[in-house]
Amino acid sequence: MQNRFLALAGVLLRRARRRPVRGAGRVLVPSVVELVDHERNVHDIRDLEITDLLGRHQIDTDLDSIAGYLGGKRVLVTGAGGSIGAELCRQICRFAPAELIMLDRDETALQAVQLSMDPQAQLTDPTVILASLRDTGRVREIFRGWRPQVVFHAAALKHLPLLERYPGEAVKTNVWGTLAVLEAADGVERFVNISTDKAADPVSVLGYTKRITERTTAYVAGSSPGTFLSVRFGNVLGSRGSVFSTFSAQIAAGGPITVTHPDVVRYFMTIQEAVHLVIQAAAIGRDGEALVLEMGEPVRIADVARQMARLAPEPVEMKFTGLRTGEKLGEVLFGAGEVDRRPFHPLIAHVEVPPLDPAAARELDAGAEPAALIAALAELCERAPSARRAA
Predict the structure, then answer these.
(1) Calpha distance 270→290 (Å, rounded)
(2) SUPFAM superfamilies, per this entry (predicted)?
(3) Residues 210-231: pLDDT tens digits?
(4) Which of 230, 202, 247 is CA-nearest to residue 379?
(5) Catalytic residue among 73, 158, 172, 198
C-alpha cells in the first residue's frame, strides 16, 4: 500500500513540475507521511512561500477573544497605505468598528488598501484621508473632526540606507510626525505606536528615531487618561522593500543576489503575525511599556539567499557587499537593562521604557549636518528619563 502512495506522490510531483514557473517560484507537494495519513489530490499542491524557506511556522493568536475593544469604536490608522497599516485596516474591519479612518500621504496606496477591502469603494469616502503627519495643524484638525477612540500609529520612514543619508527626513516624519499624533491624541482610549527591534540598543538613524518615539510615547502615557504603549517586532515578510522582495527582483533580472555579510542574521515575522501582535498589544499592554513578540530563532540571510537561488530557473550568483552604515550583524529584541517579562501571554514580553519629554525631541535640528544630527539622535536615546507629568 505504501508503494501506491509513493506512486501518487510521484504523479503529483511530475504534475507540479509541469506547472509554469512564475518568477523564481516553485511549488510544494504533500509529504509522503501526509499522503499516507490523509486522502490527498492535486489541489494539495501549493506555491512555495518564503516561510517554507525560513523553516518557521506562523504564531497564531486568538484575536476574537481579545479585540472586543475595537467593536463600535472610532479607529484611526496612520500609514494606512503601508504594508503593516493596510493589514491593520483589513484586520480591524473584522471587528465592526463604528468608523475606520485611514490616513496616509500616498494617494495610490490609500486607494489600494481601500480596494483590497471593498472592490466597489470610492475615494470620495470621507474616512479615507490624504494628509502628512508633518502638517501638525492638519493632524489636529483630523483628530478634532473624527475624535478617534483607538489609534494605531504605523506611519514612518523605514529604509535604513536612505535614512542614514537623510537623517533630517527621519526626524521630520518619525520623530516630529509621531509627536504631532501623540499631542493630537490627548484623550483617546488607546494609542499603539509601531516600533521595531532596531530600537533596542540602536545604532542606526531608523533605530534612534524609533527609540525616541518609544520614549516620548511613554512620557505621554503619564499625562493622558488613555493607554499609550509601543509594539516592537522584527522584519516583516512581504513588506514593501523587504530583503526577500529584493532577492526576487535580483533573481528575475538574472542576478547576482547581493547579501551584505555572510553572518548577517535577522528576526522575521509575517505581516499577519505582526498585525495580530499590534491588535493584541492594545488589549493587554500597559501604559508606557513596549511589547515584544517571541519570534523564534533569527534567520541567516545568506542561507535564505542560497535557497532562493537554487529555486531560480537559471544559475544565479551571490555576492557579499559589506555591512552598510548603521547595520548590525544581528538584531536584538531587548536592549541593555531590559528584562523579558511575560505576565499575560507566553509569547509576548513587556519591557519598561524610560520616558522622554517631547520638548527635548523638538530641539533637534533637522537641517544640521548629517553626522552632527545622527550624534544628537544617539545622545537623545541615552538621555536620563524625564519626570512624567501627572495624568
Answers:
(1) 20
(2) NAD(P)-binding Rossmann-fold domains
(3) 999 999 999 999 989 999 999 9
(4) 202
(5) 198
**Dist. CA 335–CA 135, nearest whole Å:** 32
Give the integer Cα–Cα distance in Å for 131 and 137: 11
Q: Identify whether the C-beta of residue 196 lies closer than 8 Å to the C-beta of residue 157.
A: no
| DSSP alpha helix (H) spans, the chain | 2-18, 32-37, 50-54, 63-66, 83-93, 107-117, 136-146, 160-165, 167-170, 176-184, 205-221, 243-252, 271-284, 301-310, 358-362, 370-382
For this structure, is 198 an active site residue? yes
Q: At CA 236, angle to CA 164 and CA 362, rounded to 5?
A: 40
How far apart, in Å, do the first and last CA atoms of the chain sit? 71
Tell which phi-psi region holds residue 255, choosing left (phi > 0), alpha (psi between -120 and 50) or beta.
left
* Separation of alpha carbons 373 and 196, rounded Å: 21
Q: pLDDT tens digits, residue range 82-100?
A: 999 999 999 999 999 999 9
Q: Distance (Å, rounded) from C-alpha 58 to C-alpha 292?
A: 16
In this structure, are residues 237 and 299 in contact, taking their beta carbons and an 8 Å threshold?
Answer: no
pTM: 0.82
Nearest to 199 by CA among 188, 210, 191, 190: 210
Q: Which residues make Cβ contacts (< 8 Å) with residue 202, sequence separation at least 6?
A: 208, 210, 211, 378, 381
- Beta-bridged to residue 103, according to DSSP, are 78, 129
